[in-house]
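Researcher: Watch the backbone:
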Amino acid sequence: MDKPYKIPESVLVVIYTADLDVLLIERADKPGFWQSVTGSKDSAGEALFDTAMREVFEETGIRVTPGECRAPNEVPSHHLRNWQLSNVYDIYPVWRHRYAPGVTRNTEHVFGLLVPRDIPVVLAPREHVDMLWLPWLAAADKCFSPSNAEAILELPHHAGPDSN
């Protein structure tokens, strides 16, 4: 059976520490392409918050949990925040085959996730081959995606004392 087409609505999750260090992960299919966690909705009815939680876990092993955190890889769900920002962009031609014929644009919703600096990160090896923590400005400079860089540049506005 053919794999279903990706839904052209996705999340971008900027994972960061209290010191505004940002986690970047390197794509397995495009070495040198560094990014934050990204991923499309699994179904049209999937809530964006659920998409963000799922993608964070799939790509980093970090579990966002609504209850008490019991494991070193867990963070409370109130640390995941929808920044109420979205980007509409052209899908890179190299990835356009994943979408239905004629789909060329994606809507990306930006989230932030505050984590402890020492949280264990386990990459999905089919998706990412390396990770690093960088100060937010350096992280923005390293991203291959302009919308990802712009989201990281918004971090100081969303990481204040009232944000989480």
Observations:
- The chain has a mean pLDDT of 93.
- The beta strands are 9-16, 21-27, 34-35, 37-40, 63-65, 74-76, 80-90, 105-114, 128-135.
- The first strand starts at residue 9 and ends at 16.
- The chain has four helices and nine strands.
